[in-house]
Design a protein that fits this description.
The protein is of the alpha+beta class. It has 2 helices and 10 strands; from the N terminus they run E-E-E-E-E-H-E-E-E-E-E-H. It comes from Lacihabitans soyangensis.
Length: 109
Amino acid sequence: MRIPEIPIGGRKKVVPSDVILFEAEINYTRLHLSNGQYVMVATTLKKLEKSFSPFRFIYRTHKGFMVNLNFVQSLESNEVTLKNNRKVLVSRRRRELLLKNMGEMNYKV
C-alpha cells in the first residue's frame, strides 16, 4: 500500500515517512526531510499535527517539535536524539506517552 502525500501548505505536499522532524518557528514550521533538505511552510505546528494524526509514527514531543519515531536513535531523560544527530526536547507530560508509543512500535528504549 502506498502512503499518500499530505498537504503541508500552499501547493506543497510531502510523504509522511520522509519527514524526520517538524520544528515550530512562530507561525511557520520547518520540516527536516530524510534526504537532508528542509522545507519552510507558513503553517503552524498545531495544524500539521492534525493533518499527520493518522500516522502513529509521527509524535509531538514538545510544544515546538514533532518527530518521526522511525528516525529516533536514542531517548534520554528529557530529549530524543534522531538519526541525523539532532537533539529534540521532550516535555515531561509527553514523555510517558512517547515511551508507550515507542514500546508499541517495538523500539528499544
